[in-house]
Design brief:
Elements (H helix, E strand, L loop, with lengths): L1 H22 L18 H35 L15 H30 L6 E8 L2 E6 L5 E5 L23 E4 L4 E7 L4 E5 L4 E5 L5 E5 L5 E7 L11 E7 L1 H14 L9 H7 L4
Length: 284
Amino acid sequence: MKKITALFLTLTGALVSVSQAMAAIGVSATPTQLGLTEAATPQMERITWFHNALLMWVITIIVIFVTGLMIWVAIRYNRKANKEASKTTHHVMLEICWTVLPIVILLVIAVPSFKMLYYLDRTENPEMTLKVTGYQWYWGYEYPDYDNLSFESYMIPEDEIDEAAGQKRLLSTDNQVVLPIDTNIQILTTSADVIHAFAMPAFGIKKDAVPGRLNETWINIKKPGVYFGQCSQICGIKHAYMPIEIKAVSKEEFAAWIIEAKEKFANNDKSLHPMQLAVLQGVK
């Protein structure tokens, strides 16, 4: 039994190490990746800690205990070892243990879980706001603090992907969302049609975009880079084709981008994007 337990712990440790190494490869999912995405915000760091340092240990201990108990019961109480089956129906101490122990386990999980959920909910002093609107099947972004700068973001078609420029199939967009690092950013999500979900794994956020209401979350990006996410609600036939691409830059670079973006999107026409035309024409 001790050898089996030691082997199980060794394999578990190896699996965790491999998953962490694979998760650290990049800011988007990679083939054969295991584990959570590398954290780019304090929010994701807390989620990763909660998963790796608490839940994995609790789950591993429970699996080892239950597996060992089943093996022990199978050996100790099989027909050969017990010619006459026991007729014991109650055991007060055993019933107390299997009632109290799960309660204790749930409390151990619940206390840090509630603290983390409270932390993830919102920031009291946001330094800027990003409003996200979900459409079928693309995203609209607004910067209320910067003269209501706004634009729409569509997935780059597969045949137009430029891998040399770092673009990724089904993830890169024509207009990146640019955000500053080391900034408390309030994110408001809503929808113009059906329920969408604004999800960025590296940021540790997934917030529903619901028609007629505003949902709120927040981030503070610690690492410059390009991060990818996707809509995480099944919102229609092109649900898989409305990615999110966020570029995190220094505050100085962000200030320069704002000036460029105001000029770039100042004369945004309201003509339909090819994707919108395709949907209206019934092209799948």
